[in-house]
Design brief:
The protein is α+β, with helices and mostly antiparallel strands. It contains 14 helices and 12 strands. The termini are far apart.
Length: 365
């Protein structure tokens, strides 16, 4: 795709941010799809799948309206991918033979290409599509990274690209600006849940002056997948043309979603690191353990993910309030010290090692 003529990071962000209240708006419906499992190893399969069977219709199927009205263009499938989560994404796209473009423009695209969002039109059966929905660790398995979001549109890549470019910079209610990484599926799920009763804002996301641009979004996160469907793709008389306005409620919802994602990532890492111990806990129990432990440890000034992981591991191994295993109260005293985080976790590790050594001596006596 040819580069846009302007060098501005965000172009044409002018107009009425609220739009016209007189126009009718698309009705959004949100459906959660539970039990979506990523693709497993398909080595030797004669016809390997490129997406999970339960997602095939929403990702590559055509609508009944499209089947009946042959004059309608087909629904295309696009992915908006985060190159910060997919190492080498620009190079992968360049050799894919798929239509693609960076959502940044000009100098920003050149300097930030390895951390920028990219849009690509996916094809069923293509290797990249299969990579995006393959689970597990290792090259070519991107499901666990949460690489981006997916959308359906009858528009060509240039039109969708132009529409999406103007949605990352949002205006806050006090007049300032925020950068919204809407290609984060967890954050977008939380945000869109608040748009079902805000038609002016939903119009800005899903349509333009020329009508509907995005007919559905597929937000596939590791724990949950949902679809956001536009139910009324008629062209209203007027559409808002200014930036999206982010409310305080929107910001809180996105912040909670990102916090929840960090906690579930921590819970999943515990299960992967300590499978023997974790198997005695349900996923829900493990999630509660992580949430409870992280909350407690933050009160003691432990905020870094490495330190929190260690504390959650101790909680998993020794039960609630792991510091109580130290009858001398030394662990509690360390937690209460007004020291920096690095010094505190080092002292906790040293004391836990002392306790483990003491227990081993007692058991061998």
């Amino acid at each position: 795709m040819a580069e846009a003529r302007d060098e501005d990071f965000w172009t044409n962000l002018t107009g009425d941010a609220n739009g016209s209240a007189a126009a009718s708006a698309p009705e959004l419906t949100i459906e959660t799809l539970d039990g979506i499992e990523p693709l497993e190893d398909q080595f030797g399969a004669a016809e390997p799948l490129s997406v999970p069977v339960s997602l095939r219709a929403v990702l590559f199927g055509q609508t009944e309206q499209g089947e009946m009205d042959r004059s309608l263009p087909p629904l295309h499938t696009y992915a908006v991918l985060d190159s910060a989560k997919v190492p080498g994404l620009p190079e992968i796209l360049e050799t894919s033979d798929l239509d693609h473009a960076c959502l940044f423009q000009g100098e920003a695209a050149r300097e930030l290409r390895d951390v920028a969002p990219w849009i690509v039109r996916l094809q069923e059966g293509h290797r990249l599509t299969r990579m995006l929905f393959s689970g597990g660790m290792g090259p070519g398995r991107l499901w666990e990274t949460g690489p981006g979001i997916y959308l359906r549109s009858r528009k060509g890549l240039r039109d969708v690209h132009g529409h999406l470019r103007h949605l990352s910079k949002v205006r806050v209610e006090d007049g300032g600006w925020l950068f919204f990484r809407y290609w984060d599926a967890d954050a977008m799920q939380a945000y869109l849940a608040g748009l079902t009763n805000r038609p002016e804002t939903s119009r800005r996301w899903f349509g333009s002056r020329d009508g509907i641009v995005i007919e559905s979004l597929i937000l596939s996160a590791r724990r949950r997948t949902c679809t956001v469907q536009v139910q009324s793709p008629q062209v209203p008389r007027t559409w808002p043309t200014g930036p999206v306005v982010f409310t305080a409620t929107d910001r809180d919802a996105v912040a909670r979603a990102r916090r929840d994602r960090r906690l579930t990532d921590l819970s999943d890492l515990l299960a992967q690191s300590f499978p023997d111990i974790s198997e005695s806990h349900t996923e829900a129990d493990r999630d509660r353990l992580v949430r409870r432990t992280v909350g407690r440890m933050q009160e003691f000034g432990l905020l870094q993910i490495d330190a929190l992981f260690v504390c959650c591991a101790w909680e998993l191994a020794y039960g609630p309030s792991f510091e109580r295993r130290d009858v001398t109260g030394t662990l509690t005293e360390i937690l209460l010290r007004p020291t920096d985080e690095t010094t505190k976790i080092r002292a906790l590790r040293a004391r836990m090692d002392e306790l483990a050594a003491s227990e081993m001596r007692e058991s061998s006596a």
